[in-house]
Amino acid sequence: MKKTIFILLSFILFTTSVAFTFDLSEQANAKIKAIYIYNFTKYIEWPELYKEGNFVVGVLGSNSALMNELSKMADSKTVGSQKLEIKNISSCTTTDKYNIIYVLPDNSAQLTDVINKLKGKSTLIVTDKVGLAKQGAGINFFIDGPKTKIELNKTNIEKYKLKVASTLVEMAIAVK
Amino acid sequence: MLNLKRILFFVLLLMITVVTKAQESKVNAAYNFLMKKQLDSAKAAIDIAVTNFQSANDDMAWNVRAYVYKEIYKVKEKNNPQSTARIESLNSFKKLLVLTTNPEYKQTAVNGIKYLTSTFYNDASDNMDTAHYKIAIAMFEKYKEYYPLIDTSKTNLQKKDIEFLLALASTYTEKFKANKSKQEFLNLTKATYSKVLAIESNNISANYNMGILYYNQAVDLINQSDYDLDIVALSDIQDNSITLFKQSLPFMEKAYSFDPNRKETLLGLSGIYFSLNEFEKSNMIKQKLKEIEQK
Known about the structure:
Number of helices of chain A: 5
Strand content of chain B: under 5%
Oligomer: heterodimer
Mean pLDDT of chain B: 91
Largest sheet of chain A: 8 strands, mixed
Structural class of chain A: alpha/beta
Helix content of chain A: 25-40%
Number of strands of chain B: 0
């Protein structure tokens, strides 16, 4: 009776198919910030003048993941009847009208300049570096272990004729 | 009276001889049918032969039966993973292995089992896709059932087992990626990689993939959230994703410890550290990755 040869096929090609993308980490981090910022629009009240035209969020500094995420948010959400507009800026001007200015961590040194230029305006200043809620920011992102949280300085917010809902105050760490 | 007993004895002896000869002739007939490729006739003859007590323990009969069914499998059922002829042939070779003292028959049985078990393995490999993976599982189970007959050391079988499980986990991942609401496939993927790690805890591929699975689950949880989510719900989402990132970390660190220069692992590890807000560690790993890429 004749012999039959046998050849084993292989499964090797299948072994590493789970895809990894680092961008997803940055995207997730940006998404958390975007959700927070959208919450600020719900819990803070701007004066009538700032309820006209677009609701403008200025991002001071460079972070492409954050810009992408905020732009996606602007495409799908509004603030009341206002269209959301996201502006990436490298410095703050006295002429532009912003509802929110988000100063990114690498641009924290510009905070003093931002505060000076926003005097008499109704802009919520959001920062992202330890201690900045005590140096003029209304809301500051901070990291508590692996978690992103917010601290809130009510006085700094109200300086700009903004009203903050007690719910947001309760959900943040109070800074004076 | 004595004469009658003698007559009865001789009649009985004659009957036994006739039956035995008849069975021998059935085995021979089956063999001849096999040589002439008349497989149905060969099958009919050999099945009668082995059911009779005279040849039920005859190695020659089982050898012929194994070959008859092996030929039926090859000629008629090769493309059918559910082939019953293959099982019949394997069981006949198995019986032959137990019965025979003839070294040539033993070798024949080993070769036959080796060939047929390899066809189970190949069927498992051929069917390892999102549509036919259940057939692949069934085929590999058969492979595992018969393989110890030809190789009693566990090492080789474990190696094949790992190869199979990694492929199966990848197939489950594909199923999950195609429809992320089907959580069962994510759970099956994790369970399958866990089986690999139970066999070989240092398996780089299983460790890496487990790390990525938990990582992807964590980022999906955040990235699929709506912008309308309130801060309390966002806090819960963050807590759940942190738990998943932390579950991901030990697997990726283990994969990294076994192969510190593998780009995918470095990328994965830096992503996990970043997501846990351990930016210093994340940047350090990124820097290492950069250095490797520049080499």
